[in-house]
Amino acid sequence: xxxxxxxxxxxxxxxxxxxxxxxxxxxxxxxxxxxxxxxxxxxxxxxxxxxxxxxxxxxxxxxxxxxxxxxxxxxxxxxxxxxxxxxxxxxxxxxxxxxxxxxxxxxxxxxxxxxxxxxxxxxxxxxxxxxxxxxxxxxxxxxxxxxxxxxxxxxxxxxxxxxxxxxxxxxxxxxxxxxxxxxxxxxxxxxxxxxxxxxxxxxxxxxxxxxxxxxxxxxxxxxxxxxxxxxxxxxxxxxxxxxxxxxxxxxxxxxxxxxx
Length: 260
Known about the structure:
CATH superfamily of the largest domain: Phosphorylase Kinase, domain 1
Number of strands: 11
CATH architecture of the largest domain: 2-Layer Sandwich
Shape: globular
Largest sheet: 5 strands, antiparallel
Distance between the termini: 67 Å
CATH class of the largest domain: Alpha Beta
Strand content: 15-25%
Number of helices: 7
Helix content: 25-40%
CATH topology of the largest domain: Phosphorylase Kinase, domain 1
């Protein structure tokens, strides 16, 4: 056994000892497919930092990442988003990274790009949180692993549903709240979500924006285009629920005007 193989076996043994394990339940999908050696090392570092003590199955899956339910040392649920390094669809990512002054000279190779993409999500979560936009609170990041607040019943480990799956008692009120969050994101955080829809909003007694890795600063050359697209998506959805919304162009100009 080589030195590298020996070191890697020790890491695997330690992760197993500290209960980075599969959960034998149909409620969750098995943790597999994204846990390459580099990801396991990132999880090991998070374990050593006291961020994660256990990792269970996926609570959501996507084209670029899976989100798993983890447990912190206090026994509470946390969300652990693991970006795939080898199989993620990364071709579109540069569109949202180029022009961002926080990330310069980014290599297009997937192994270099994915950690930058994860860091972008973490930084965007921080900006949104500090601006008062409801998102999962960021906790930690290691390479391609982002640890954040678990949205839902953290004691029971039950995740909050997507907005699209919720029956809303007052659709007009929720629509106004989502538009206010978009406005606050632009004015206070200087961020545009850039992929906002009923599929990227959780409902936990209030709207919670998620999946913010592609979110761009207002200085991005396409920020206005992305903002308009977000508003279109939201107005289209709520119109299907019977809400008489303002024209997306009017909402766009109001948000960008800084009035109110």
